[in-house]
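Friendly challenge for the regulars: who can give me the structure tokens for this chain first? No prize, just bragging rights.
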Amino acid sequence: MNIAMIGSLPKHLGGSETGGISIHTAQLSKNLADIGIKVSVLAQNITTAKMTFHREVDNYNIYSSVPNRSIACAKYIMGNLSRFRNTFPTNFNSMSIRERIALISLASRYLIFLDKVQPDIVHVHGGGLGLLASHMASKALGVPLIATLHSLRGHMPDKLFTEQVIPSLIYPEGIICVSNYLENEAITYGVQKDKILVIPNGVDTDYFKPEDKNYARISLKVPPEQLNVLFVGNLIRRKGIDWLIKSFSKVCEAIPQATLYIVGGKVSDTDIRWYKDILDMANRLLPNGRVKFLGEMNSRHDPTLNLWYNVSDVLVLPSRAEGMGMVLLEAMACGKPVIGSRAGGITNVIRDSDNGILVDIDEINQLAEAIIRLLNDTKFSTRLGNRGKMDVTAMYAWNNVATQTIKVYENVLSSNR
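First reply, four minutes later:
Bragging rights claimed.
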């Protein structure tokens, strides 16, 4: 079986940034290749003037992508326009001219890749314009399309969601959702239930695993008397960092030795002002030195992120919208207790007071009380951490994710014979 994967890749593989989708794409590709599936990945966050073979890693092939609306795309459009004749989505005529140009250019970018690798199936990660372009390219080549949805609406503008995301959901022959919450959301927007299979994110337990806490403290130069609260995620509005900082100011009043560590990547240009406001809020509300912004950290080839999980006493994910929350699994794999908001797929991962704590979105006091309880009650924290680690071992191994994904491929291929 030959799979063309369209997604992004983390920084240690050459991608421009590391996030949940890039980690998922890399881990799924690796584990599919380990089973004997031929996988080629078009890494949309690795761009070169020409689409070329980038490198082989973990037994799968990575291809760089040409920039959208590039000369390479334009040349391919002119030479292959007839192949797109019957592939345009039903909402094409209602798009603006700019959106039509972007869609055709993106579809050409994908078709360059598909013509090179000649797959049996195209597997794209995400919805919207990328999914519409994947539909056009896969249909032009005459191969079936699978999509994995990592989120749907989130904080996306209404116009973009209505005009691009919802119309794109009718085209894949199979849809994988990373949580039951996303499955229900997709059904709400018209996807047939029998086209959907829920396959949760996995976690790399070879990397994310318990380490001696004293060793982690010494390695990271964390004072032994501190109690450490950890946030890991992209520095974007929907992750709820502002809510966490407000809640943590109350934690500091109750537990003066508590310290908040924030691990996060590059801030987008549109969020720079928001990020400055977050820094100002932290300086205004929190005692000096009680919040530290650590920047982005990559996994796999750098042990630092795993050490931060192990030095932490609790991980908090206060998202206002979330497809699943991969960082919860990473912390749980290290045996750490977790707190998450009742947002999206987080509720499919955390069972309240069993393997973690759930709190209502934007409830400052509720989040503060949950953090205080876990920092003060080590017996309760240990029980939650142990239960979470058991869950990861039983349900979230990447080889299981790959095996379930192959079943989706096989079902789609058999229905096309």
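Residues 97-117 form the longest helix (21 residues). The chain has a mean pLDDT of 90. Your move, everyone else.
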